[in-house]
Amino acid sequence: MDDTVSLYAAAMNPRTAVAVLAAALVVGITACAPEDESSGAAPTPSSADACSKDKLALKTPGTFTAGTDKPAYEPWFSGDDPTNGKGFESAVTYAVAAKLGFGKDQVKWQTVQFNAAFAPGPKKFDVDVNQISISEERRKAVDFSTGYYDVDQAVITTAGSKIAQARSIGDLADAKLGAQVGTTSYTVLRDVVKPKQTPGVFDTNDLAVQALKNKQLDGIVVDLPTGFYMVNAQLDDGQIVGQLPGGGETEQFGFVLEKGSALTPCVSQAVDALKNDGTLAKLRQEHLTTETASGRELTR
Fold it and tell me: May I ask which residue range the UniProt record assigns to the signal sequence (predicted)?
């Protein structure tokens, strides 16, 4: 403490002196305290500066590399061509790329099989987009962005089938049902529907649809937008049986990135921005069927 303050305080009455000394002590402590690091903190990986185009950790400098499967299914893509920007996931990918500073001609696509996208190991893509549900099990091998789509699972069938009038999960107990291998749809079929017959497992949704046409299946479990595409475009007499009840946590699709990728927070930041400014909602309305499954959710 300054000697002048001490002498001045000594000349005062004791109560005033204590007040002066206390005030001086507070000033001294404040002056000596370190500056609040939060006020001048270094940019975090999700900051605008760290996510500027020239600082992104890309597989190929100057190029945003996106992966998806082939065929690229509707309504997520259009015409089996992810480069045209049509279909929900193609449009969202280009919107994310634009948020990160890339023009459409700077986005390159590569074919990545569904299960390979979230298998352990290095990736050749910056992001993969292929109706891949975020799960803790998959997070052990890869990173996920924040979710860009909330998923509902549904059961589809053909007119006149044994489950066409099903109203509950119990009504599906004796049915032969199928789903694509490695998908959340298959997990829901196995763990929620729990049919008595062993579920059919297919490498692609196209093969499941063919099995339904051939009467090898009574129904397919699939995400709702894909289900609407199947009944409207792939089946002559297809119908949605109903939506399956959700669990406690909302299922979401997210972009897949290599485990520990420095790009993950930047992609998440872009997805969140698209969510907040209404772009994701607009793209959903444009590319995905908004009607519900006949207004019916199958009861437990």
Answer: 1-33
Q: Which helix (H) or strand (E) holds 253?
A: strand 252-253
By the 8 A CB rule, do 254 and 148 touch? yes
User: Which CATH architecture describes the domain 53-150+250-287?
Assistant: 3-Layer(aba) Sandwich (3.40)
Q: Tell me the torsion sign for CA atoms 105, 106, 111, 115.
A: negative
Comparing CA positions, the residue from 217, 98, 114 lying closest to residue 156 is 217
**Phi/psi at 103 (nearest 5 deg)?**
-80, 165
190-243 pLDDT, tens per residue? 999 999 999 999 999 999 999 999 999 999 999 999 999 999 999 999 999 999
CATH homologous superfamily for 153-243? Periplasmic binding protein-like II (3.40.190.10)
How confident is residue 49, by pLDDT bands cut at 50, 70 and 90? confident
Question: Can you give the pTM of this predicted structure?
Answer: 0.77
CB atoms within 10 A of CB 94: 22
Q: Where are the domain boundaries for CATH 3.40.190.10 in the chain? A: 53-150+250-287, 153-243
Query: What single-letter amino acid sits at 221?
Result: V
